[in-house]
UniProtKB/TrEMBL annotation:
GO terms for cellular component: cytoplasm. The gene is bcp_4. It holds the Pfam family AhpC-TSA. The keyword Disulfide bond applies. It comes from Fuerstiella marisgermanici. This is thioredoxin-dependent peroxiredoxin. Thiol-specific peroxidase that catalyzes the reduction of hydrogen peroxide and organic hydroperoxides to water and alcohols, respectively. Plays a role in cell protection against oxidative stress by detoxifying peroxides and as sensor of hydrogen peroxide-mediated signaling events.
Amino acid sequence: MERLKRTANGDPIVTLPMTRCPIITAALLLACANPLWAKNPPVSLREGDAAPVFSGVDDKGNEWNSSDYIGRNVVVVYFYPADMTSVCTRQACSFRDQSEELGQAGIKVVGVSGDSVKNHQLFKKAHSLNFPLLADVDGSIAKAFGVPVRDGGEITRVVDGKQKKLVRGVTARRWTFVIGLDGTIMNRNTDVQAATDGKSVLKLVRHLTASAQ
């Protein structure tokens, strides 16, 4: 009988069986190294997949539920890194400036970041934003959509003549999702042009709607 090999501390050495497929081998190694990854593998949503049903706290401190809108409207869920930063401000303002046309097209917009409710309130006030922002401080909504997240951070901005510190729990990647009336992903954009995101979404929805008729 082959003797079990042990380390100098007496712990047994376990050798993983190798497979001819390198992808499967890598997955086995990751699963063994990180049991949580094995239990909750990363989400990968594609066009045509059912959109996650989710809820979050909005900038007014109220619960916002996707189920109240999906099926009644085309819903745009856009994830962005941080409130009160230059590129994220341009993206938010692109949706603000297109709000009338988006509404006429039956589109509801919601922004999601790792910022707090208080941060969102400051952001909306500073730029007169006219759509809800959800506080995804633990990144749970982003993860449900498969959006990569990293550690949060903090920035300091002057608002109404006063210096404010804005702390966020996580920092999400800039991805935009369009959810159709049937509750499936119509489009997933992982290469967002922030300053024109509102126009791009409106053009996309109009095109897809016309094609379906």
